Structure formats: C-alpha cells, structure tokens
Amino acid sequence: MDQTIERAGNFLPRVDESAGNPNAVDRRVVSLTAPASAAAEQYRSLYYRLERLREVKPMRIIALTSAMPGEGKTVTAVNLALAAARANPERRILLIDADLRRSQVGTVLGIRGKSGLAELLAGECEVRDVIRRFHGTRLAVIPAGSTPEEPTQVLASARMKQFLQAVRENFEEVYIDLPPTLPFADAAILGHQMDGVIMVVRANVTPMQAVNQAVEQLGGAPILGSVLNGAEVNSTPYLKNYMKK
Ligand SMILES: Nc1ncnc2c1ncn2[C@@H]1O[C@H](COP(=O)(O)OP(=O)(O)O)[C@@H](O)[C@H]1O
Ligand SMILES: [Mg+2]
User: In this protein, which residues make up the domain named AAA (predicted)?
Assistant: First the structure.
C-alpha cells in the first residue's frame, strides 16, 4: 500500500478531472462558491487558527466529528479543506470521507464514481483508484464509497491504520470527515489515531449534555476545540456590527 500511495503523492497520477465538477457543487461549499462571503471568511479563520496551532505542535491529520448526525461535519470538513487548498496551494492536502454510513463529501463536491475508502479498506482497489483531485485545485479527495456491512469493523481494521500511516507520510495536511460520536464507536476508535479532533456543534440544536457526552466518549483523543455551526449572524454581536458596515 505504501508504494501505491507514494505514487499517488507524486502527485495523483490518474485523476478524474471531471470528478469534482464545480457546477455540481453544493452551494454550502462557500469556500468555493462564495469565497468573499462572511461564511467563507469564518472557514479561513478556522484554518488559520489551525495553522497557528501547528506552529506549536505539528499536526497532519485533523478529524471532524460531532455528537449526532446532521450537525455540519461534512460542510465544515469540505470548506476547511478547500480553505486550506486555497491558502497553501503548494501543499499536498487530502480530504477523506470516513463517514461510511452517511457519506456526503462526494455529493457536496459533485464527485462521481462509486468506489472510495470502503473499497480501499476491503482490499478491492488501490489508493490510486479512489483518489480524486478536486477540479482546479490540488486538493485530493477520497470519497467514502459504498456502505459496508460493518462500518465500525472496517474503520477499526489494521488496514485503516496502515492507510492512515501512509497518508501521514504522503500528505502535509489531511482532513477527515468522521462519523458522529454518540451513536457509533467509530469516532472514538479513530480519534486516537488523529493529531487533532474538532467537535462540530450545531447552534441551537445540539444539547450541551450531548456535547459533553461525546467529548467523554472520545476519551483521550486530542480534541482541539469546537466549532459552532449554523450560528445566526445576529447572535454574534461582533459579526452583526461588522456586516452592517
Ligand atoms: N452552516 C450551515 N448553514 C446552513 N446549512 C447547513 C450548515 N451546516 C450544515 N448545513 C446543512 O445541514 C445538513 C447537515 O449538514 P452536514 O454537514 O451534512 O452534517 P453532518 O455531516 O454532521 O451529518 C445539510 O443539509 C447541510 O447542507
Ligand atoms: Mg456528514
């Protein structure tokens, strides 16, 4: 596997250029569709916060999770990875969809093709078969593929560990869209293999207790902090005043 990804790292030999079709991108991918918007600015600011943390502690693999489904992990992961690719176009950056049950990365980025991480971990294909480059950027993307029968087992496998080791060696920044923490063991199992974990919290939706429980379930995983997703501009006085100008 190492050798395969080595080739992929030098860089993405067989990319399907039509894979990430900008016309098929979800409009919530503001880092691409509206880079000048206040929302895109928030993702850039999140990215630069990570950059500052990296000055203190080098971190390659950053994962996003949340207590429950539907809190904005995918929207955040995709925008963050695109903000990273825009900010540092010379870096090798990879976005992986590891939410094998409710995969959305391929859909929001307009990526076609069925195979992804699931097929890779099942040993049905090689990294070069599942890695795509997002249109017009050097951002590499590995979609989730089809839902396996036992997603937790697949993500907890030695193959996954090997795969993470290989991407760590071949990419400078890796963003992983993880499953939600409370319903499944996946995030807790993978959390420890990450350099940093960001907890996405849906504003006015996620109960505080659920967030606390999720953090507890992640055990000693390196949680960097949380992102409040879907906050109304009106609830943030600073932003509100700023936007009036
Ligand atoms: N900040 C946001 N503003 C508006 N809609 C959002 C925002 N974040 C997420 N959504 C929408 O909420 C739904 C769930 O978001 P998603 O990122 O898919 O959640 P998760 O990956 O945590 O399940 C999607 O329809 C998405 O487009
Ligand atoms: Mg998702």
Answer: 59-216
Domain limits for position 116 = 2-244
- 3-state SS, one letter per residue, for 148-176: CCCHHHHHCCHHHHHHHHHHHHHCCEEEE
Which residue's C-alpha comes closest to atom 11 of ligand 1? 72
pLDDT tens-digit map of 53-105: 999 999 999 999 999 999 999 999 999 999 999 999 999 999 999 999 999 99
Report the pocket of ligand 1 as residue ranges, CB < 6 Å: 28, 66, 69-75, 102, 104, 229-230
- Of 6-15, 67-76, 209-218, 229-238, the poorest mean pLDDT is in 6-15
240 near 213, Cβ under 8 Å? no
Tally the domains of the chain.
1
Prediction pTM value: 0.89
Q: Which of 75, 201, 205, 211 to mutate to test the pocket of ligand 1 (most atoms within 8 A of CB)?
A: 75
Longest dimension (CA), the chain: 55
Nearest atom in ligand 1 to the alpha carbon of residue 71 is 22
